[in-house]
Design a protein that fits this description.
The protein has 378 residues and is α+β, with helices and mostly antiparallel strands. It contains 15 helices and 8 strands.
Length: 378
């Protein structure tokens, strides 16, 4: 028979439906259904000024808003022929890694709760709040930041931020050890994770799966290393990989990614302490960021020949490789905006990594995927 796990189901972690064909307790076939949360962000972006689109990016994935802001703004800057200052690039790198930690902590808390481990859930949510406090201190918001701008970032970091951030990084280093003790020393964790949801390296490549799921299959692919952007070519870190290609391997990869993110954050803080400077490019178009139409003496709108261009960006957001395409035809709005969500592909591949397991295995397997439906439907 076919059963529905969703769209209102604790397993989904969002508004989507997983249709499952079962024979007894064994999964024979699955059919992921998307579209319950579609908001038309790509089309709406064509009717917004370049900086106004950033508001939509925070809502594409609420646990990775800063990463999606960065993704879009790189493509927009290419299309607009803008170059951000060096300090802005380091602040963006810092913000990306803080967002990676916050996103993975949210995943950790939700994932372990699916396994029946309540204590790690409380620890993860507690520590994520520390990262949100840091975001609030320099953006004024905890989830919808609207911080990036075409040509840089909105404002510099406040006084004392770097010292405060270092204390949070020291705290997290010690907590990650506790996380592993609570999970890897738990018999429940291993019984519900080891050997489940296997997706081989070949299958990952065939389906276009990226991010922690791909690296858990032993593929050392990370855009921050392979095609560095922002200041990633100026910091040292290791790519987190594992060989199991199962739920446990995905856990190990994300835990190591958080440790490496802490390492990157410390390096960016050291650099920012030593290199003051502007955070927004000079000589920006006057209309960029606010409606502006030049008017002549007789009241007619004057035509300006703004430079045209196209921008394409690809960043390593917490869920995988996200891509953006922006077309600038010389107007105040982007002519075309297109996004590629890594979670869309990772969920579609459920047709490969779910059959053969039991219905009770679906929550830990899908929990290891780290679903964010907002960026899937857009």
């Amino acid at each position: 028979m076919w059963i529905n796990m969703g769209p209102q189901h604790p397993m989904t972690h969002g508004l989507w439906n997983l249709r499952v064909r079962i024979e007894g307790e064994i999964i024979e076939e699955v059919d992921p259904e998307m579209g319950y949360l579609h908001r038309g962000i790509e089309k709406i972006s064509e009717d917004r000024h370049y900086n106004e689109v950033i508001t939509l990016m925070d809502r594409t994935c609420y646990v990775a808003g800063m990463s999606w802001e960065h993704l879009y703004i790189i493509a927009a800057e290419q299309a607009l022929h803008l170059e951000p200052p060096e300090r802005a690039q380091f602040i963006r790198t810092l913000a990306d890694e803080l967002q990676r930690i916050a996103s993975h902590l949210m995943w950790y808390a939700a994932f372990v709760q699916d396994l029946g481990l309540m204590t790690p859930f409380l620890y993860g949510m507690r520590d994520r709040d520390l990262i949100l406090d840091l975001f609030q201190s320099f953006t004024g918001a905890r989830m919808t930041y609207e911080y990036n701008r075409a040509g840089g970032v909105r404002n510099d970091l406040p006084n004392g931020f770097t010292d405060r951030a270092r204390k949070v990084m020291d705290w997290l280093d010690a907590r990650f050890v506790e996380y592993d003790q609570l999970c890897l020393d738990s018999d429940i964790f291993h019984r519900r994770c080891d050997g489940l949801g296997v997706l081989s390296a070949r299958d990952c490549i065939d389906w276009g799966v990226t991010g922690p799921m791909l690296r858990s299959a032993g593929i050392k692919r990370d855009l921050r290393k392979d095609r560095p952007y922002a200041a990633y070519d100026r910091v040292e870190f290791d790519v987190a990989v594992a060989d199991g290609a199962d739920v446990t391997a995905r856990y190990l990869v994300r835990m190591e990614e958080m440790r490496q993110a802490v390492r990157i954050v410390r390096q960016t803080l050291d650099w920012l302490d030593k290199h003051p400077g502007p955070v927004l490019a000079e000589r920006l178009p006057r209309w960029l960021g606010a409606p502006y139409a030049p008017v002549g003496r007789e009241g007619y709108l004057l035509k300006r020949n703004y430079p045209t261009g196209r921008g394409f960006s690809s960043v390593e957001e917490p869920h995988g490789e996200a891509q953006a395409y922006v077309v600038n035809t010389g107007g105040e709005h982007p002519y075309r905006v297109k996004f590629r969500s890594p979670v869309f592909v990772n969920i579609a591949a459920a047709q490969k990594y779910l059959p053969g397991y039991r219905v009770a295995d679906i929550p830990p397997i899908m929990g290891s995927v780290d679903v964010c439906v907002g960026e899937v439907d857009r």
